[in-house]
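A reminder from the course coordinator: this example appears on the midterm review sheet, so study it carefully.

Given structure:
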């Protein structure tokens, strides 16, 4: 089976999702696998530390991994090291939304979903202790990963 199919509100460009967090739900326009830059999801392929070939050039080990992960500015060292230890190309999705407080916008990162290149779930990292983040990650997961194939990824 594949990922969950998106449905959209008839009067807006927002997808239908009910995470229990109205701020997240109202900002969520699209969720997918692979490379994506959206309001509630940023995802990209991340190459393993040992990969050194890119576009016919040889690059020192680790530089491609660092390049791929530097866009995840809120990612903790623990998550970055765990992804590095996976030793394969993966897709990392940062699940987040934004709030405005006292005239400034703040990004709230709920966690990271890591899949293999075939969309099979490898691991979910929840980066807050909030039950809201847990509900958001659980609601988003079927749109980002093929959960039926997840056992094959380990």
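Designed residues:
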């Amino acid at each position: 089976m594949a990922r969950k199919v998106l449905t959209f509100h008839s009067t807006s460009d927002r997808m239908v999702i009910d995470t229990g967090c109205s701020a997240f739900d109202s900002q969520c326009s699209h969720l997918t696998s692979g490379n994506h830059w959206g309001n509630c999801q940023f995802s990209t392929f991340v190459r393993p530390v040992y990969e050194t070939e890119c576009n016919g050039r040889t690059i020192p080990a680790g530089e491609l991994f660092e390049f791929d992960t530097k866009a995840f500015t809120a990612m903790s060292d623990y998550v970055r090291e765990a992804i590095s230890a996976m030793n394969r190309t993966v897709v990392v999705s940062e699940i987040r939304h934004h709030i405005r407080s006292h005239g400034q916008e703040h990004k709230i990162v709920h966690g990271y979903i890591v899949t293999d290149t075939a969309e099979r779930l490898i691991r979910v990292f929840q980066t807050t202790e909030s039950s809201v983040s847990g509900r958001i990650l659980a609601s988003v997961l079927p749109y980002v990963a093929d959960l039926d194939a997840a056992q094959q990824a380990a």
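The longest helix spans residues 131-144. The CA atoms of residues 24 and 97 lie 6 Å apart.
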